[in-house]
Design brief:
heterodimer, A: two-stranded antiparallel ribbon, B: mainly alpha, two-stranded antiparallel ribbon, 74% helix, globular
Chain lengths: 375, 496
Amino acid sequence: MTYEFLQTYWWCLIALLGGLLVALMFVQGANLHLGNRSLSDAQRRVILNATGSKWEITFTTLVTFGGAFFASFPLFYSTSFGGAYWVWVLLLISFVFQAVSYEFCHKKENLLGAKAFRIALMVNGLLAPLLVGTAVGTFFAGSPFTVDKAAIANAAAPVISTWGTGWHGLEALTQPHAVMLGCALMFLTAILGDLYILKNVDDEHIHAQMRRSIRVLLIPFLALFVFWLVILLVKKGFAVSDDGVVSLEQFKYLHNLLQMPVVLVMLLAGVLLVLLGLWKGGFTKSRNGIWLAAPGTVLVVMAVFFLAGFNNTAYYPSNTDLQSSLTLINSSSSYFTLQVMFWVSMLIPFVVAYIAYAWRAMDRTKPDLENGAGY
Amino acid sequence: MDVILWSRLQFAMTAAYHWLFVPLTLGLALVMAVMETLYVVKKDEFWKKTAQFWMKIFAVNFAVGIATGLILEFEFGTNWSNYSWFVGDMFGAPLAIEGILAFFMEATFFAVMFFGWNRVSKKFHLASTWLTGIGATISAYWILVANGWMQNPVGTTFNPETVRSEMATAAAFWEVITNPVAVSKFFHSVTSGWVTGGMFVVGVSAWYLLRGRSRKFALKSALVGGIVGLVGSAAVMLSGDSSGVHAAEFQPMKLAAAEGLYDGGNGVAFTVVPGIKVPKMLSILATHKVDGFVPGINDILNGYTDSDGATEPSVAEKMEKGRAALDALALYRSLKDTDPVAAAEARFVLDQNVRYMGYGHLEKPQDVVPPVKVVFWAFRFMIGLGMLIALVLLLSLWGAWKNKLDKMKWLLWVAIICIPLVYICGQCGWIVAEVGRQPWTIQGLLPVDVAISSLSAGAVKTTFFVFLGVFALFLAIEIRIMLGAIRKGPAEIEED
């Protein structure tokens, strides 16, 4: 195994985890219906329980995504988390509230009332995809930071990665291209949520609502995503030369797409699957749209990560100091660590298998709310 | 106050808060698993209802536990940017294993345990209950490998190209995952969780007995809780003993601070409380030899020679070497592309002094002394409360065994009071471990003030108070929900 192979392998895994995280955010999307006035209170409770048995896997995927980034590309973790402070803190707080809301929501001792925790779940439903999407958007838009590894020997200012603005991440919200991806993701996860509820809950009225919701959300999602993609393909990108020098290159991401046909195929297949899933959910009687749209989402997100990181591209570019930009080569863990983690990652299929087994066993029957087994 | 202090306060608060939920998760998981096993083996509905009651408590506690776990993970990056680059390569593999092996196990099987009573088979459910607890325990191992490495950084090489600690060989990896500090920390932490879970169950059962409610449920719960807690207590004492030996070997300053020992020597006495000493006892505990050498704070500051004849340089000397290392690092990095010969010389100087590199960041030798009073008293409270709790568990278990615990009114009251005490005991333990190693995030390599992110004090202060508010709110709600569930009691259990 070469160092380069391992760095590539781990970027693929990060991309896969990112894709799974976005697809599993159907939990966040579905929770937006907790405030849907055209559903009865009991129906909203059913939705709460439908996401309630899955949210921990989404949450754990987030934890693992963060952990994998820390482990395989620690310079990204130290630069982005320590720099774009407010973005990560906001994301964190929204997830922390989500984690307790299920448990607290329908307990009479919860001090704030059920409504407050439903609102917390809905805020998480909007903020989580918006912030994750915007953060991924900065992979292409760039962020204001500098990296100087020699700083650690400097007593006066020992921090290696420093951020260029006092906004510490919130400045990303002024980058239209990055925010566009965040918004597109928000609509996509909302649609995935509809598709999940359609599959997981047996209720004609709820089904009708979900199909209607899909038909409405479809338009802004497609508009934003296509617009974002077009801009991406014509904008300047952050190219890395063989000796590690970063420069701006017109049409860089278009070049990446054309020079990596596999990624092009992934992107097209992913988009096609998502569209098919939307069509099935919104315009046919089928309840299985989620099985097309979710894998499609994983493929699209992976393709986006591949465009950002492969083919000599800086995946976390700095627009204040180009040469501080993070590449797979200059930000990764050592050869040996990546190799150990490579062997550990061989266990992933086993993990996926037992999750699938447990979910199948659980989904054979619907939640039994009368016996107290539910939120 | 500056950003370093606010970052430390924020992390200390989050870690301490996280540790309010983790030990109960670890302990209660075992208690429930034993109860559900009794249900499956004896086919007695009583045990099912009993296990289900404790699971309700477990679920409330579990949610806050994982939420605060995520905060800790994020704070490594957000508030300790330099640290997360410096250690990323060392923690990569352990964290990957934790994520893949433990987190998904916990999350998947918790959902089965919570939702699955009527959806999966009895045996699958039982397996899920055990796997939830096993997942939590495996997770504890790998995160304590990370913590243990910070206390005793083994298996690492400093790489001046990347400016971080790196793991270079399989032998190094093996050293990291079998780090003796990590191993004893793991047993000490997990079994202290059993004590917490056991004491919690016994204390709550005591309340039922005092109220004359659910007698059979309470006595049987106290029996299982008492056994789990007592086994935990014994294991905590054994692993605590090896923790002491490791502190003496790898972090003598922590031990000296915990003992308030300024001038050490051979055959040192153990201070029970100021004024009461047991001759030779500290030497016995720390070195397992009657006349073993234990250095005091002044010895460490001034340098010493131990009874084996090994010499430890003074802190001033270490600082000098540390500064030489940092200067050589800066020189190496400025010359490596232009003047390979001079760079190689700088690298040689760096390699000579690198093990003291962290000392180069210190301002004065006194900086290596942690807050002695805090560590000294936290250590005494930990041990005192731990012994009290072990005694209460033993008596309660005896009472439950003899079926007359409900007659021992005074013991029931003590058991209830011991619920908050067992939490204080665990917190004191972590204060000894973490305050005792100040000023180091990584012993000898990276002091706290170099580990931080480049943030303003105001930003961290703001998030500190936000988290403080959130934590207080969650704690208030969690306690209310737990009290509500306890007041309501277990569902329709047949009492004989």
